[in-house]
Amino acid sequence: MKLVLLSGGSGKRLWPLSNDSRSKQFLKVLKDAEGRKVSMVQRVWGQLEENKLAADSIIATGHSQVDMIKTQLGPEVQIVTEPERRDTFPAIALAAVYLYSQGTDLDEVIAMLPVDPYVEDKFFQRVLDLEFALRNSNANLALMGVTPTFPSEKYGYIVPKDFDKDECFTVDYFKEKPDEALAKHLIGKNALWNCGVFAFKLKYIIDLLIEKNIPVDYETLLQNYHLLPKNSFDYEIVEKAKHIITLSYTGYWKDLGTWNTLTDEMATMVTGKGIIGEGVKNSHIVNELDVPVILLGLDNVVVAASPDGILVTDKEGSSKVKEYVKGFDDRPMYEERSWGWYRVLEKTKYPEGNGVLIKRLNITAGKNLSYQMHYKRSEVWTIVRGEGIYVLNNQLRHIRAGDVIYNSLGEKHAVKAITDMEIIEVQTGSELVEEDMHCIADDWNDIEALCKITI
Asked: In this entry, which stretches build a coiled coil (predicted)?
């Protein structure tokens, strides 16, 4: 069996810590067995390694999350990268075609699951049971459903035609997010929470793609990805499947998609600079800013602060934050990259059209920024910590703390950190966006090959 972990979405219900590049699965607010802070994706990947499943697992994601995944899981993790975000059907089609192009047998069972479930290890053993159930039932799809512990209105439900908690059963129909009364009725019919885990034989999806005239060559599909229907896998495939079975899972499972559920599992009551007053009950502070937050006299409250904004909410109403931030289209103010991280300290747009953006960059020793140029902005770098090698228009030189460097419009430039480096970058120009970055080379050996060595 091959496992594909779907990593997408911006996790707006966990604003302001989550954004388009740092979704909820990357927030380091949980703790591992040694008490170290880890993210959801790190926790899940660790469980896959414990269950000897990581070697047969790949992650399907978008460009904006690749650096974060490699930073948190390591450069060896297999990633299938969407050229653009479209929905779960295109993402799953791309992952299936990738496996097919890698020589995976058409009879192989492929399991799809979210990248961030909060579960016990036995959850993954139950995922493996999907292969046996699929092969012995000749079903098109095999799903895994969670036995409900209360009539939730937040989850979709899988309703069976018949039911045996130890065996697979045939699906009658699905119901998305019912009200509490209907949820109670469905639970009475042995309905399960739909946890987004399902499996199919590779041949089933490849044959469907051929029927839809969708390329099953990986490189060709990448080039034509924008033509795929922007639909969910449920709408495009599941609703039209003729035979679907489900296995039940009775262990611990939780969707940490809101501040209310996430804080139940967090490592500490206070993350970052903050103080919770004496007598305050069940309240949390998550602070990424370099200023203190003090919480007094408010029970069942979350205060979350990041460069993207500040949220103060009672826990019960925290899931509604998505409704209020859906119109925000500002760039992420903090991102982790393969070379380190950056934080936006200040940004200003002037009436005349030009703007200023100030960043704090932290480059890990041995890592480098790509060899790049910009057409709509210039940059001034002030090196405030560490030393490295700087490239400007194919010329290399040594730089250290105290140096001030000018990267003018259209000039090729890069830097490699010898020790951990910190740079204050001041951008000026007409468009101060990440898209105004034209990469010439990423690998430092390739960059050096283009350069003449000078003092």
From this structure: none
Within a 13 Å sphere around the CA of 84, how many CA atoms are in the beta-carbon half? 10
Closest listed residue to residue 111, CA positions, set 195, 16, 187: 195
Task: Please check whether residue 202 is in contact with residue 100, taking contact to mean a CB–CB distance below 8 angstroms.
Answer: yes
Beta bridge partners of 284: 302
pLDDT tens string 400-426: 999 999 999 999 999 999 999 999 999
pLDDT at 455 over 50: no
Do 193 and 225 share a domain, yes or no? yes
- The answer on pLDDT for 256 being more than 80 is yes
pTM listed for this prediction: 0.82
Evaluate whether 131 touches 199 at the Cβ level (below 8 Å): yes
CA separation for the pair 386, 366 (Å, rounded): 12
Structural domains of the chain, count? 3
Burial class (CB in 10 A: 0-12, 13-18, 19+), 2: buried
Instruction: Please tell me whether residues 211 and 101 are part of one structural domain.
Output: yes
CATH number (domain holding residue 120): 3.90.550.10
CATH number at residue 414: 2.60.120.10
Residue 178 lies in a domain: yes
- When the pLDDT of each residue in the chain is averaged and rounded to a whole number, the result is 90
